[in-house]
Amino acid sequence: MIIPVNFFQDFLPIKQENKDSLSENMDAFEKVRTKLETQPQEEYEIINAEVKHGGFVYYQEGCCLVRSKDEEADNDNYEVLFNLEELKLDQPFIDCIRVAPDEKYVAAKIRTEDSEASTCIVVKLSDQPVMEASFPNVSSFEWVKDEEEEDVLFYTFQRNLRCHDVYRATFGDNKRNERFYTEKDPSYFVFLYLTKDSRFLTINIMNKTTSEVWLIDGLSPWDPPVLIQKRIHGVLYYVEHRDDELYILTNVGEPTEFKLMRTAADTPAIMNWDLFFTMKRNTKVVDLDMFKDHCVLFLKHSNLLYVNVIGLADDSVRSLKLPPWACGFIMDTNSDPKNCPFQLCSPIRPPKYYTYKFAEGKLFEETGHEDPITKTSRVLRLEAKSKDGKSVPMTIFHKTDSEDLQKKPLLVHVYGAYGMDLKMNFRPERRVLVDDGWILAYCHVRGGGELGLQWHADGRLTKKLNGLADLEACIKTLHGQGFSQPSLTALTAFSAGGVLVGALCNSNPELLRAVTLEAPFLDVLNTMMDTTLPLTLEELEEWGNPSSDEKHKNYIKRYCPYQNIKPQHYPSIHITAYENDERVPLKGIVNYTDKLKEAIMEHAKDTGEGYQAPNVVLDIQPGGNHVIEDSHKKITAQIKFLYEELGLDSTSVFENLKKYLKF
User: Fold this and answer.
1) 3-state secondary structure (DSSP) of residue 663
2) pTM listed for this prediction
3) 317: left (phi > 0), else alpha (psi -120 to 50), else beta?
């Protein structure tokens, strides 16, 4: 199941370079273990979009969509299905693949690094594969087969970052392409999800706080969809299916956190939902996977990861606490009913494979080469007390043999918006920093989703200042406990995380020496008052409506980074922005930068000779993407900036960075 809390904010496109696959004909865990034992440990691998269907694996090889027999997936023996160069795009990569049930067609969504636009191609599989059709601006898509054994492709169309229309298409001799659903409320978006057993296609209509789901029968996809439950403000729900029952992950009822409910598929309305499983307090549901006899919940509780395996035959529950170094899950596409594979990762440790085997009732981890970072670094989980007494979790990394941590540089990470967790996936540049003596601190402030839905609610709308108070408390706690000092402290964030960073620079600049921001949201007030921007209406649930609500307007004025710039000393700031970014318009970032420079000049003039003014760097990159996570140029520029501003020797860090980023 996909839980798309961040569906229309902060996409992080990663250029896909390599491939990995599992085999149905041998134990998946053993094959993964064998591969990782022979993989160079000084490099990391970005897993390519791939799908396993029947006896084939479909994936990207170079600039081509290819397939190979499952047992030959690690060899160069593959069949080219489509050359992406035919689309005449700049460095295209495959973002998603779906194979039709009987393998007559394969659909793939193609994107580029410098744009959020996408193209969905449909390739007819035959002795000589040929592109049957292409559709622009497709967001989600799934295949089903109708009563006459004809493949039907359902897809959503995205226009100006808004996804409101659902289409269905057939190919071959009976070509059809028709729109059959349009969402009228501009604050909602639509995405498609095929249940794990392929029995139902779900049309999910949702905004930040409310959802509505319609079912399309996978056996008769031309019939009208069936509504599960009409949208109720504040109620979120997602649907899976097994044995004529719907399993519903929802926040309905008290407490307003996610819980698992179920009902018969032919009586789906809310009055028929029966409580099946409840989560502990302060628990974030990361994902859910459904199997023939088991339901697996991937959870984050009190800043630690867990897997709960529920036996559907006897309602038994097995809760597994995962290794304390793990900070994030990576879900594997899996059709094996006997095993549940997944990966664990952290910002400084590459993903490691784990497999839960239902028959044994045990969790197995891949063996072989043990990453040396496990012995050379420490991970700590601490808490800070915010102004109102709320405990704010932090995750901290540093070298085991570091002495006098107060003299070490500190890089603080924050986000705190949309109910999203702070990203803690593996990043090679973060590992290089730890190897070079840095302390990394991840502050899980309110507005994010680390402790569940209430944690988000306590940091949005007219509670956004809670996130700022949390961030301030985290940094002061770190310094108070001997982790670095203000002159060696840097703060980093992307997109909506820029709100809290910019606000802290205005209110407590003395806590920081340097800041790096990427595509930052800095002009909240003017952006939210401009309804011509594509996302303004969809963002009202997060930031409020300053155009019609004076309370919201005045509250935003209290923290908006742009509105609160004043003549004072600021930390040095490096901003990466993208020329055609539709999510965070460049205009707002340029206005912020200009106003900040004016305030710094005014302060320097008032202070007199000898004042060392901070550096403000605006690096505008070409393209229309929002954030490009794997940009070597961006990573190098940010690290160079940090080392120069903190007065550190960067010789060794760039040598190590070259090794990881494969310059």
Assistant:
1) coil
2) 0.89
3) beta
